[in-house]
């Protein structure tokens, strides 16, 4: 972080953006990599945008060279965090299609960076949902990535599914590609970051057809209830959303109760009410 902050107070990023337009591929790759590492900071993202750095980064996505693609997809991921500027430009330049194509890469880092970038670029609207459905074999590619042995690939793909599955038609398509048993299998993985995005994906997929029942017959529901016992607020919040959708199946309600889920949920509600009331009481006493 200290390095990223130091870079902001120099003209380094401006010069790097200039070098992105050079012919030297190695130079452009290192430039994109530097932006990837530094664009966590908003100031860096603003500099890239203000000095027209988005276009040359996007140009790198059409290359075949592994290091260039890894650096460029990482730069897109970080720069896309600036919704008001970079995200709009990336989408205008067909960024979603380009990144989705890279999900077919044989390189895990390229897949991971592309997936996280897609999470930022895809909006909850009909246009993006229809565009994604228009990618030939696109949703099937996404579901098949759930068979990866790379933990970060699995985590990022679950995150993309949670975004894509906001659209009901998309949920139906990925359900036909057996997304439910693949997600259910991942409940055996003991990693809290994966569990968080897995729970989000299950929450989105649980609304379609008999998916809530299918998660039960696969043995996933009782495992998801256990996520509530983990002291991790984002994970607990995602788990609550998942259990809410899974409770559409009456038999799942019995499983949630059997494994202590109802008691934990009531305790969470009570704690939330208590947290909400304390500031109000303090203000009233003043």
UniProtKB/TrEMBL annotation:
SUPFAM superfamilies: ARM repeat. InterPro entries: ARM-like, ARM-type_fold, Armadillo. This is Armadillo repeat-containing 4.
């Amino acid at each position: 972080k200290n390095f990223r902050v130091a870079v902001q107070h120099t003209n380094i990023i401006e010069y790097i953006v200039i070098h992105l337009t050079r012919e030297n591929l190695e130079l452009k790759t290192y430039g994109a990599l530097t932006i990837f590492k530094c664009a966590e900071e908003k100031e860096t993202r603003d500099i890239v945008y203000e000095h027209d750095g988005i276009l040359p980064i996007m140009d790198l996505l059409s290359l075949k060279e592994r290091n260039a693609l890894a650096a460029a997809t990482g730069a897109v991921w970080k720069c896309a965090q600036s919704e008001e500027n970079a995200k709009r430009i990336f989408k205008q330049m067909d960024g979603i299609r380009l990144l989705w194509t890279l999900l077919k890469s044989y390189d895990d880092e390229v897949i991971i960076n592309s997936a996280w970038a897609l999470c930022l670029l895809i909006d909850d609207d009909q246009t993006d949902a229809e565009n994604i459905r228009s990618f030939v074999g696109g949703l099937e590619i996404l579901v098949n990535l759930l068979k990866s042995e790379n933990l970060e690939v699995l985590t990022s793909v679950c995150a993309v599914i949670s975004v894509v599955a906001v659209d009901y038609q998309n949920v139906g398509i990925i359900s036909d590609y057996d997304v439910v048993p693949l997600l259910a299998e991942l409940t055996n993985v003991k990693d809290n970051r994966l569990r968080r995005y897995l729970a989000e994906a299950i929450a989105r997929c649980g609304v379609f057809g008999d998916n809530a029942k299918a998660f039960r017959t696969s043995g996933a529901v009782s495992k998801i209830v256990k996520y509530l016992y983990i002291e991790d607020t984002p994970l607990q919040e995602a788990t609550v959303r998942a259990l809410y959708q899974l409770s559409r199946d009456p038999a799942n309600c019995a499983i949630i109760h059997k494994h202590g889920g109802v008691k934990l949920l009531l305790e969470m509600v009570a704690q939330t009410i208590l947290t909400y009331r304390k500031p109000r009481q303090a203000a009233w006493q003043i």
